Amino acid sequence: MTDVLKPFLRLAALFAVVLVSGCASFSPYSISEGEIEGHMKNAVAKYDREQLNSGSPLSLSLSDADITLGPDGRDVAVIDLKGQVALNALMTKLPVDLALRVEGAPVYDSQEKAVYIRRLQLLESSIDSPFFKGDLAPVTDTVMRVVAQMLETMPVYRLDETDTAQRMFGLVPMDIRVAPGRLEFVMAE
Fold this sequence. Notes:
This protein is of the alpha+beta class and 189 residues long. It has helices at residues 5-23, 33-53, 137-153, 164-171, and strands at 29-32, 58-69, 77-89, 92-109, 114-128, 133-134, 157-158, 174-179, 182-187.
């Protein structure tokens, strides 16, 4: 190694140490509830198209997705979903309006560079169709299984690899922390 390169390497190493130690003490990046809601609506529309293209008789469309992060200081996300489930069978579409309130834990998957909602629990549900209005357990259970499968496999947020800052977060061991109204990316412990 030449004497000319040694000072540059020392400076680069010092800069890396300062950067890593500084990142451990604050949250440089967070995601708001609104950002997650927008991403989730787009992801659900894509998921529904994929399911219909694969031949699934059940379609799901969202008219509203409201996410509350960190209610009552807890490390959970409460998701209020309103939309329509339709059974497409025998050339007939049987639509059912639904409203669900579910609770789950936001989890960051560092391999996928994405946030998922896991360990879902159904808090409230109601359906409205031409044939029935109220809470019909068999329909709600089926819809809840579909929603749970969707949220377990579909991220509610994915780091944007085209954004330099987000791409850099994907390179270091990160985790998320639930704060009221947002998810914060923090250094993994």
